[in-house]
Amino acid sequence: MSGIIPLLILAVYFSFVSIRSGRYRPEERTLKITKPLSVMIGLSPLIGTVIFAVLFVFVLKGRLSERATHAFLVFVVWMYATRFYQYISAYYKKKEILACSAAGVLFSVALAFVFTPLDRYVSLIYSRIDWYAVFLGLGLYAVFYAAAFITAKKRRREDDE
């Protein structure tokens, strides 16, 4: 459980920061950075799927379930780090969001580095929950997009008013 708890903390923390950031409008001058990041985050699952499919078919042989769950989990953690970075760029004048997002980037990147070696991932997560790690990754993925959806919906509602 030692590897799973930090991932759950990351998901809860991200939800908290996302919902808090929904209260504010992004700074206008940061749109040149934040808009492409949003597009990149939106397209990343498709691009990641293609890249990992090619890797799994042609390069990586053996231990497929370990490698696939590892790739998916680390990929989602990097998505969290990228969104936190986007929050830093978009809300740099809001000290609360800036500090929380900076902590989120550091925490996400640290988790990504901890889980990146396959053997460490296997000892911390896969050996404990086996192929159920897919559900952990899907849960993190769902929290990521649910928080983003709630924040976007809140902003649209405010724009309509």
Explained architecture:
With 161 residues, this protein is mainly α. The chain is built from 6 helices and no strands. The longest helix has 29 residues, at 31-59. The chain starts with a helix and ends with a helix.
Classify the helix fraction into a percent range. over 70%
Q: Outline, from the CA principal axes? A: globular
Radius of gyration: 17 Å
How many E strands?
A: 0
CA-CA gap between termini: 45 Å
Q: How would you spell out the order of helices and strands?
A: HHHHHH
Mean pLDDT: 84
- Largest sheet geometry: none
Task: Return the structural class.
Answer: mainly alpha
Low-confidence stretches: none
Q: Strand-residue fraction? A: under 5%
Number of helical segments with 4 or more residues: 6
What are the defining features of this structure?
6 helices; single chain; mainly alpha; 161 residues
Which secondary structure elements does this structure contain, and how are they paired or packed?
Layout lengths: L3 H18 L9 H29 L4 H27 L4 H21 L2 H12 L3 H28 L1
Helix pairs in contact: 1-3, 1-4, 1-6, 2-3, 3-4, 3-5, 3-6
Summary of the model, kept short:
This protein is mainly alpha-helical and 161 residues long. The protein has helices at residues 4-21, 31-59, 64-90, 95-115, 118-129, 133-160.
